Amino acid sequence: MFIEPHFSERDHEGSLKVGWIEVICGSMFSGKTEELIRRMKRAALARQPLQIFKPAIDTRYHEEQIVSHNENALQSITVGHASDILALAESAEVVGIDEAQFFEDDLVDVCVQLANQNKRVIVAGLDMDFEGHPFGAMPALMAVAEFVTKVHAICMVCGAVASYSFRLVDTNEQLLLGEKELYEARCRRCFLEGMRYRHHTEEARIRENRR
Ligand SMILES: Nc1ncnc2c1ncn2[C@@H]1O[C@H](COP(=O)(O)OP(=O)(O)O)[C@@H](O)[C@H]1O
Ligand SMILES: Cc1cn([C@H]2C[C@H](O)[C@@H](COP(=O)(O)O)O2)c(=O)[nH]c1=O
Ligand SMILES: [Zn+2]
Question: What is the pTM (predicted TM-score) of this model?
């Protein structure tokens, strides 16, 4: 379990002397939002001013809350662009960002600026998309972060540890919001099997159309 850096990182009034970036990544259903909520609740207990942000693109559950799959929730601000966070987080010492994969690449620079202003920045997001490719600004964020935590789900096919989000419907757009009706957490083996089957049926369909 992630333990916050020691309190010597604070001045005598308890304010942060140095900032840093924490990344929480993993597949869908792996507990990213739960872990973000857990860390933010502990910051609140320590009476540190905090603010949570999420991208306008993702309003699946609530406009002004981050909500985990098991219905844990915390107040958040929805922003259209990562750069909006800079002004809105001015009075926060701890900044949480959920669904980071949906922001533009400038999220990396925004997080670095916030950390350079001595803020603790906690970013949660999908490390890979439905094809198993790195998602948005997540890889770059992992590179500049002081702390990276990868959380895991349970494979819905075989019960092993899952790192992949398998899409159950046949669309190739990277952006497709949804839950269990559209995605399944899968281990490497079951993810690969699903992808092979998909390519196989796609090729069969193309062959059929050529006739
Ligand atoms: N396949 C699964 N593996 C693990 N947890 C799952 C799975 N399916 C549903 N869950 C639920 O999802 C919760 C995690 O939700 P959440 O924090 O929102 O995940 P994430 O933000 O990574 O999508 C778990 O505590 C569990 O209740
Ligand atoms: C893999 C993948 C996911 N999405 C969408 C589906 C969900 O709306 C979110 C992820 O939510 P979670 O909190 O991590 O469960 O992202 C997508 O648009 N494209 C993808 O490839
Ligand atoms: Zn599996």
Answer: 0.93
